[in-house]
Design a protein that fits this description.
Elements (H helix, E strand, L loop, with lengths): L5 H6 L7 E6 L5 E9 L3 H4 L1 E5 L3 E6 L16 E4 L2 E5 L3 H10 L4 H4 L15 E9 L2 E12 L2 E13 L5 E6 L16 E4 L5 H11 L5 E10 L5 E7 L5
Antiparallel strand pairs: 1-2, 1-10, 2-12, 3-4, 4-5, 5-6, 6-7, 7-8, 8-9, 10-11, 12-13
């Protein structure tokens, strides 16, 4: 599979929607993840990421402008022991609760469908990172309609055991802008990862996202040996 430059991918797509990046730094020492949200409507753009005790949540930047919390207010990131869950919706909680009951990542998602936002039927994209005893693996999942036909639900899980240093994967909700919005297709895109500091990497991602549509960005680096982590949050809009 072709290895892509993530910044070029983002710069070339005005509306990838929401996106998840997971991979391993070039020196092999760091598990890397990022999650971003974009928006076209006032309601979608009226959001910020806020840190929580075990991850982040979305909140209205200006509560007076929040017209519909459905599908836009949720916890994109939660930590369950040595697992970090990253998703584009409230299926974060579904995965957390399922895995807490000894279900697998994939089994936990069997109860969920794509989003109920016809005619887009936005895919649910999810990622899980597992770090334990100096070992690291991750997986990604997408739940989508069959080319916009809501009568057929398609489910795909991609697992990456002992991921290569300097390699990551990128999955996002839309192939680009449109009406209806075209759902992501194929395997998660393979990308190269370097050894940038978290601040530099976050800045590069943020600058590559479309200026009009970007809303918020989360980046986390996890030391594979120690399990310690550092987090960077970037919000376009300030909370009122």
């Amino acid at each position: 599979m072709k290895t892509n430059n993530i910044f070029e991918l983002l710069s070339a797509n005005a509306y990838p929607g929401r996106g998840i990046i997971i991979g391993r730094s070039a020196d092999g020492k760091t598990a890397v993840t990022a999650y971003f949200i974009m928006g076209r409507s006032v309601n979608s753009r009226n959001r910020v990421f806020t840190a929580t005790s075990d991850g982040i949540k979305t909140e209205a930047a200006d509560p007076s402008k929040l017209s519909d919390p459905h599908l836009i207010i949720y916890s994109p990131v939660r930590v369950l022991g040595n697992k970090t869950i990253v998703t584009n919706g409230d299926q974060t909680d579904t995965i957390y609760e399922g895995m807490d009951k000894q279900l697998s990542f994939e089994q936990s998602l069997r109860s969920r469908l794509y989003e109920d936002d016809a005619p887009n039927y936005t895919p649910r994209i999810s990622g899980i990172m597992h770090i334990e005893g100096g070992s690291y693996n991750y997986a990604m999942n997408i739940i989508k309609s069959a080319d916009g036909d809501p009568d057929c639900v398609e489910r795909f899980t991609f697992a990456y055991s002992s991921p290569l240093a300097g390699v990551g994967h990128f999955i996002h909700t839309y192939m680009g802008d449109g009406s209806p919005l075209p759902s992501f297709e194929g395997e998660p895109e393979k990308i190269s990862l370097g050894n940038d500091s978290i601040d530099v990497f976050a800045d590069k991602l943020w600058n590559a996202l479309n200026e009009d549509n970007k809303v918020s960005l989360f980046v986390r680096y996890i030391d594979i040996e120690s399990g310690s982590s550092e987090t960077k949050i970037v919000n376009k809009y300030s909370k009122v």
